[in-house]
Specification:
Shape: globular
Structural class: alpha/beta
Strand content: 15-25%
Largest sheet: 8 strands, mixed
Number of helices: 12
């Protein structure tokens, strides 16, 4: 097993030897997973519920990515699942949006693989989250296996504090786990090699052994180990100072990208929380009336909910993307896992809320004569004058309108950063015909999709649907894999209504897609052996193409 100091000496040694520090083609591909632990709904991002015009689809009234003024007799706003067509595939409208430089997100889909209809066997966050990297609990993980095969300076790097980050397992390599409290991730990683520690790191008997070991691989060249030692100590300071300066500029860049994405988001309609009293036709309970507007069971009164959300922060993703670009472009690590800084992440943090009401501040009345329900502010209500409200990814208690608006804002900022990151990989050439993007797999994951409460007050976990989105230069065309059930609006024992993405059997597998199939697919793309040998991959690699081994994706009649 390589020690970190040996890895560093080898990289600097080879740089001094060849004096050309060019990028090199690696034995395996880079793997970067962005894990949205907490599981926000994916309907506005990569959940393909109606991939083709002839795909059967049943609209659940609380599943969607678009709000429009309500039809007569409905409350406030209608939610719908809308799509645009990109490369013959129906995808959410997000992919028609652009960066500040007017570059369309849809260009990313030219190298995208959507996997839908994956069913997981467990209900909660920890196990399903961990399975995104380690399909068998307690066994080897994808990033652990990559670490064992890589000679990069850092075997594997993980950021986040949750079950996903704890699922790392390898046979011989160490994980560099960055504490979420760190303010500068690159400085934390390089801290052992900073100049004040350089003499201590290299003033050991290991250094001479390390240099001799490395030099043995270059017996046919004249290697002056004394000069190498001198140059190595000098380069440590020069390289690390430059690394940290480069990283700081990347952090500034992604911070600006996020700010631009937030500022550029404008809705056609201003969506306000209700004024009191307000009424609706029919006999309804309080949650039916107010539920779609709630954030963590609280009503944050606002004349424009979307603008209220834009007062919050999504900035913690800036340093995450900066770290990935910094590590991959400098070939410092081939295995990176990015997940939220706590057990269930936030879509948006610390929105500035005024006049925050709890459910106890409201009362419901019903007028049987006119068959109308109304919500009133209680005489003893005590709204908070000012509060800082987080919008969580795990949206059990976020209303349906809040879910559409918050995910719209989050995915626009996230995809803006994703576009820049992938664009940088495309522009960074390893040789005349190969870019870093060709040598990388970018994976967007979470532990499941959502099943909305039919009163609009929140959503539950849906492990029967676990969307996966992969990007790579190896993938040459927009591809979707997997069958789902169309669902029903009739009452059923599963409390599943409409088309939700529930996995249906695939003819070739004789079963729905499982997480082990997704894992085998990723392993094949990366270039490592599958972690579960009996689980077939969903693709094959031939003639520099990545065709699916499954038939055209179908929406099949049924519920589960």
């Amino acid at each position: 097993m390589y020690r970190p100091s040996l890895r560093l000496v080898q990289k600097i040694f080879e740089g001094n030897l060849h004096q050309n520090r060019q990028l090199t083609k690696q034995e395996i591909r880079n793997y970067i997973q962005f894990n949205l632990y907490g599981a926000p709904s994916r309907w506005g991002f990569d959940s393909l519920l109606k991939p083709y015009e002839d795909s059967a689809f049943i609209q659940n009234k609380f599943v969607g990515n678009t709000l429009s003024p309500a039809r007569e007799g409905h409350l406030g706003w209608d939610i719908s699942y809308q799509t645009i067509t990109v490369n013959g595939l129906n995808v959410p409208p997000l992919w028609n949006e652009t960066t500040k430089q007017n570059k369309k997100f849809s260009s990313l889909l030219e190298n995208a693989l959507f996997i839908r209809g994956c069913r997981l066997n467990f209900e909660g966050h920890p196990v399903n989250g961990a399975q995104q990297v380690a399909p068998v609990t307690g066994e080897l993980s994808i990033h652990g296996r990559i670490a064992d095969k890589s000679n990069a300076l850092f075997s594997s790097i993980s950021l986040g504090h949750n079950a996903v980050s704890r699922a790392y397992k390898s046979t011989q390599s160490q994980l560099s786990d960055i504490p979420v409290s760190e303010k500068n991730y690159a400085e934390y990683l390089m801290r052992p090699y900073l100049i004040q520690d350089a003499e201590r790191v290299f003033d050991t008997s290991d250094l001479e052994k390390d240099i001799e070991l490395i030099a043995a691989g270059y017996k046919d060249q004249n290697v002056d180990t004394a000069k190498i030692k001198k140059d190595t100590l000098k380069d440590i300071k020069n390289n690390i100072d430059q690394f940290l300066a480069d990283y700081s500029s990347l952090f500034i860049k992604y911070t600006q990208i996020i700010q631009d994405a937030v500022a550029g988001q404008i809705l056609e309609h201003a969506i306000a929380t209700p004024s009191f009293p307000f009424e609706a036709d029919g006999k309804k309970d309080l949650m039916e009336m107010i539920g779609p507007y709630l954030i963590s069971d609280k009503l944050c009164q606002s004349e424009n909910i979307f603008e209220f959300m834009k007062t919050g922060e999504i900035q913690y993703w800036a340093q995450e993307f900066a770290l990935c670009e910094f590590l991959i472009k400098n070939q410092l690590c081939q295995s990176i896992l990015i997940s939220p800084p706590n057990e269930t992440g936030d879509l948006i943090k610390q929105c500035h809320a005024k006049n925050v009401l709890g459910l106890n501040d409201l009362e419901l009345k019903y007028d049987s004569k006119f068959n109308k329900s109304s919500v009133h502010l209680r005489s003893d209500a005590s709204p908070k004058a000012l509060s800082y409200q987080d919008v969580q990814m795990d949206s059990h208690h976020n209303g349906a309108f809040i879910e559409v608006l918050s995910t719209k804002l989050f995915y626009k900022t996230f995809t803006s950063c994703l576009y820049e990151f992938i664009d940088q990989l495309k522009m960074t050439k390893i040789d005349e015909h190969t870019s870093l993007f060709d040598q990388s797999i970018v994976h967007v994951a979470s532990e499941f999709d959502r099943n909305p409460d039919q009163r609009g007050g929140g959503s539950d976990h849906l492990p029967l649907s676990n969307p996966t989105l992969l990007f790579s230069g190896l993938i040459k065309e927009t591809t979707v894999i997997g069958n789902i059930y169309t669902g029903t609006l009739k009452k059923n024992p599963y409390d599943l209504y409409g088309t939700l993405g529930v996995g249906a059997p695939c003819k070739e597998l004789k079963a729905p897609i499982g997480i082990v199939n997704v894992s085998s697919t990723i392993c094949q793309l990366v270039g490592i052996d599958p972690l579960v040998k009996r689980a077939p991959s969903l693709i094959e690699i031939k003639n520099n193409q990545v065709p699916s081994v499954l038939s055209k994706p179908l929406n099949l009649e049924g519920i589960v």
